[in-house]
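Hi R.,

As promised, here are both runs. First protein below:
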Amino acid sequence: MNSEDKGVIRDALFFIIITLGLSWFVFWGPIAILGIPAISFVKDVRGPTWAILLFILGGFVPSLVGIALTGFLEGRDGLRTLFTSSVQFKLGFKWYFAILVVVLLGTMGQIGIQYVTGKNFDYSLFLSQLPSFLPLIIIGPISEEFGWREYLLKRLQKKWNALISSLIVGIVWSLWHLPLFFMVGTSQHELKFPFIGFLVGLTAISIIMTWLHNNTAGSVWTAILFHWLFTWAMQVVSTGVSRSVVYNWLEYSPYVLMALFILLVWKPKTLSKNHKGIK
């Protein structure tokens, strides 16, 4: 292993250890262990102010760590590149369309599972929940993507191919959410999401996001936009479906099928139309 490979692995491990450490032992883990609710989007409960602050700050850990490490390792030039990428809006119509199609197919697939299990869906929820669309760009897209895609994925692809890098990001991304499965009030806890199903689903989404990322010159805006639309659509569907063990296990299956399709059509080595990937 040469020095460059060692440096890539070191930088990636720094991010993973710091991000998971802060999530598990500083922000979310203590709240989960103590059984104290923070802000619930599922139940009408609210915890103490300090728990709410820990919960909110914990959600910004991936981006804050990614930005901090980029500044430390690459200085002002690295930070300038990072923030410039977040406003790289010229993706081309094709890739804006691809983002919309993936989210639309995933959403319709989830609603289809609802119908297969004998339940109906209220489509008016998409209109009634429009006011939450703009605020959601902060929770998830901006608070996470400077870490997952811009910092971690970018470095992993210098050492491993796009598929392996996507799998690593997906697994770490899922593990970062792990405390939420034990935190009173969160959707993961209250709706009894199976963690393994969540991990498989998020890893599939990680593959899709790498495909989008690599085909738009590594644009952070691509990741932010997809994460934004996906989060809002998931929120709307989650409030309208009748939860069951079957639905919870199949919830991410439309995205898993799309990830498999992408792997069949594009090269797993780069997941990119130019077969060079992002270095």
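And here is the second one, sequence first, then its structure tokens:
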Amino acid sequence: MPVSTPPVADDFLAALRAATRALHAEAERSGFVRDLLAGRVTRASYALWLRNLWLAYDTLEAALAVHGAPGLADPRVMRAAALASDLAALCGPRWREDIPVLAAGRDYAHAIGAARGAQLAAHAYVRYLGDLNGGRVLARVVARALGLGESALRYYAFDADAASLERDYRAALARAGATDDDTRAGAEVAASAFRHNIALSEAVLAASR
């Protein structure tokens, strides 16, 4: 009897990386994010960006709690509560009512809420590994551009060491991919998630002018 070859866990992550490499670079050169990285933002535009990201994270974290593979709903990487704290520090307790959700933000959250299996893992890959990789750099950029203190920068702060947490989360993503044979769908959704981020970035920039 032939022996089946177990899936290579890294295949899933490699597929997501390959599908998003060019889009990752495009996202950094697009819309609000381009201005953010250059330090050309206002508190109002930054709050609008965070408000719409919060909806994406809130939707993702609710979906992971119910449908996520083991290890993906790791409380150490969850960002919705941190974003809510930053928004309250920036805009006061009525930030949900005072800051609009843009159509691009709703579209992104809807796409996340509809995902399952490898597709949901792909959304987690885009959001959380991006945070763990770039959080410290962005924290410095935002603090310098807007004069913010730690109380408004919790989005970028993790309770655990970011490098070890990234290793743990990569392993959880790899396990999720190894148990779902729809790697192609996961890669397509990861690319789509970057396109949603680019669309949201452009929408925030347009709304802030």
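A quick note on the second one: The longest helix spans residues 117-146. Let me know what you think.

Best,
J.
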